[in-house]
Write a structure and sequence with these properties.
This protein is α/β, with parallel strands linked by helices. It folds into 3 domains: 3-83, Orthogonal Bundle (Arc Repressor Mutant, subunit A), CATH 1.10.10.10; 90-157 and 258-292, Periplasmic binding protein-like II (D-Maltodextrin-Binding Protein, domain 2); 159-256, D-Maltodextrin-Binding Protein, domain 2 (3-Layer(aba) Sandwich), CATH 3.40.190.10. The chain is built from 9 helices and 11 strands. It has helices spanning 3-15, 18-25, 29-43, 59-83, 98-103, 105-115, 167-171, 218-226, 271-292, and strands spanning 48-51, 54-57, 90-96, 119-125, 139-142, 151-166, 187-190, 213-215, 231-235, 245-248, 254-264. The strands form 2 sheets. Strands 3, 4, 5, 6, 7, 8, 9, 10 and 11 form a 9-stranded mixed beta sheet that branches. A two-stranded antiparallel sheet has the order 1-2. The termini are far apart. Residues 300-307 have low confidence and may be disordered. Keywords: DNA-binding, Transcription, Transcription regulation.
């Protein structure tokens, strides 16, 4: 039995399609299909069932899956043993909410790759919870601690959020000194029925009942604020990337959230993944502190835009 064929079997089992598995492996879908057929022929069993939704595991495939994952873990362990204790190498896919993926992970992962030349990092930014059991990612960053399922969970760092708007928008309105002054302003926030985690329901904590401009992406919300479209809750660590955006009502509205790192339970014994998780945690904590330290102290702005 060829390990490379087994690797392709795992990719299809996790992706539910030949094309998605091929993209993950860096080969075309037709090659994936031929390799699956070759494995099925060698084993004399049908491993997958073709459905309108894609490829699902047949009963024989379900029985093979845990053995294939055991082989995968053994191959990873062998690679780690040969690579030595110092460096981190190989490919890793990190899933993260788009705010973290846009404003934090590029810098953190750039430093990781510089320190570990053999490391290849893929950043997947999606405004939803990642399904690690389907191997959508090797590790995922979440905004709340999971309460179910088997996983290795690690608290990464806390971060702050505040109400903010662009100077151009603020200069066209009376000074905002209390929450009551928010009435009549255009608010920016999440599409209410697309909030995938309760920790993201920021506006509920401000007393604002509805937002006039909404998106399922925190990065889109930030760009709308940068464009002078209104007022919204923003991550402090994103403000240095958006000149002219400044915090308001910091004494009245101040939120703190946490990032959590979630890994496959099977990776608990992997020294490579443990080292990578620790490096990622240290890097994210330092980057959040660095960026939040760049945010200027607020001063009151007059309607004409003068402080």
């Amino acid at each position: 039995m060829d390990w490379d064929d087994m690797r392709i079997f795992l990719a299809v089992a996790r992706a539910d399609s030949l094309s998605a598995a091929g993209r993950r492996l860096g080969i075309d879908a037709s090659t994936v299909g031929r390799r699956v057929l070759r494995l099925e022929t060698a084993l004399a069993v049908k491993l997958f069932q073709k459905t309108p939704q894609g490829y699902s595991l047949a009963p024989e495939g379900e029985r093979l899956l845990p053995h294939a994952e055991t082989i995968e873990a053994a191959m990873t362990g062998a690679s780690e043993a040969l690579s030595g204790p110092g460096g981190i190498s190989g490919q890793v896919r990190i899933g993260a909410p788009d705010g973290c993926a846009n404003y934090l992970l590029p810098q953190v992962c750039a430093r990781l790759c510089a320190a570990h030349p053999g490391l290849e990092v893929q950043i997947v930014a999606l405004p939803r919870v990642f399904n690690l059991s389907r191997r959508e990612a090797d590790m995922a960053i979440a905004v709340s601690r999971p309460t179910a399922g088997k996983a290795v969970i690690q608290r990464l760092t806390d971060y702050n959020l505040h109400l903010a708007a662009h100077e151009d928008y603020l200069s066209g309105h009376p000074p905002i000194r209390t929450r009551a002054d928010l009435k009549g302003l255009r608010m920016i926030g999440y599409i209410s029925d697309m909030i995938f985690d309760r920790e993201l329901d920021y506006l509920a904590e401000t007393g604002v009942e509805r937002a006039a401009l909404t998106s399922n992406s925190v990065s889109v919300q930030m760009q709308a604020i940068r464009a002078g479209a209104g007022v919204g809750i923003v991550h402090d660590f994103a403000i240095p990337f958006c000149p002219g955006v400044r915090r308001i009502l910091t004494d009245e509205v101040s939120l703190t959230r946490s990032f959590w790192l979630i890994r496959h339970a099977d990776d608990r014994s992997s020294q490579r993944m443990n080292r990578l998780a620790e490096a990622l945690a240290q890097g994210l904590k330092a980057e959040v502190a660095r960026l939040q330290g760049l945010v200027p102290v607020e001063t009151e702005m007059s309607p004409a835009g003068r402080t």
